[in-house]
Amino acid sequence: MVASQIELHAPHGGVVPELAARAHLEAIGPTVEAALAALPGGWDDVDAVSVTRGPGLVGCLVVGAAWAQAAALARGLPVAGVSHLAGHVYSAWLAEPGFEPPYLALVASGGHTECVLLRDHGEAVRLAGTRDDAVGEAFDKVARLLGLPYPGGPAVERAARDGDAARFPLPRTRLEGAFSYSGLKTAVRYAVRDLGEGGLTARGTPADPAVVAALAASFQAAAVDQLVDGLEAAVERTGAQRVAVVGGVAANAALNGAVRRRLAGLRVVVPPLSLCGDNAAMIGAAGWHRLRRVGDESGFGVDPGLDEYA
Ligand code: KG4
Ligand code: ZN
Q1: Cβ atoms of residues 59 and 20 within 8 Å
Q2: pTM here?
């Protein structure tokens, strides 16, 4: 059971924080009730409550954290406050029975592009982060430059299917222990600008669908190359035998294929689509492990800039 705000934000071409928080408040009760309907005893079958403490939009985090702590208090249940990033890392643990740390995770989402080594439960080491944009953010921005709908990732992937990736060669940024996507995004912007007035619609997006497809394909190829280069470097550095690709961008089939090709021989887990994008199941999984380590935490606040994996 996942409540989506895509239709709410689509007309704005991106998430509007004020609308997001209000919609969150309206959706949270009915969404939890719908999820509990799958349990024969409803709330009586729940042992603990887990919720995201950060990072994220403060209004949404406050709604979730307050609601979860109130529900836990009312039911006499323990409550865990977990990092959204830990949730993504645990989506692989959830997707694949027996997939236990130590494993290396590439977290590729709208807000993050990182390689993280989960050494053990509660013991994560960040190996690489992004210097500027996150890869999902780059997909979303490129979608806008190409006149594709929100959310950009799936739209760029769809458009790229029929595109000639060799028509617009785009640069790759390769950094030691870091990712960067602003150069690639700017290169797409210049390629669009260089089409000239004759090649553009009134909104400034490419007029020819074949050009849109080719730019989408070139961008996706470069973005995937950069991601897998960084992941490969982290594998070499750590000697990891198990690798997970998680976060919204892990839904990308080109990324999935490239990781499996280039890391052939390693155990690679890419969760199913339903666990790649933001979801509560992964927060439950991370919370379960956190509760076993630190116990009940009721009374915690939220942290929009939370930058840890526990
Ligand atoms: O993890 P997520 O659902 O939310 C965040 O925590 O950010 O990730 C959302 C991001 C968006 O930027 C979206 O465009 C991207 O994941 N995304 C994709 C695909 N599906 C979603 N990017 C590339 N290809 C996809 N198929
Ligand atoms: Zn996420």
Answers
A1: yes
A2: 0.95
pLDDT digits (tens, 9 = 90+) for 10-39: 888 888 999 999 999 999 999 999 999 999
Contact 163, 37 (CB under 8 A): no
Could you list which residues have their CB under 5 Å from ion ligand 2?
Answer: 109, 278
pLDDT at position 14 is 83
Q: Does ligand 1 come within 6 angstroms of the Cβ of 87?
A: no
Examine the pLDDT at 154 and tell me if it is beyond 90: yes
What are 263-283's pLDDT values in tens digits? 999 999 999 999 999 999 999
The answer to whether the CB of 133 is under 6 A from ligand 1 is no
Gap between the Cα atoms of 106 and 247, Å rounded? 8
Counting atoms of ligand 1 from 1, which one is nearest the CA of 277? Answer: 3
Are 247 and 271 contacting, i.e. CB atoms less than 8 angstroms apart?
no
Question: Confidence class of residue 64 from pLDDT cuts 50, 70 and 90?
Answer: very high
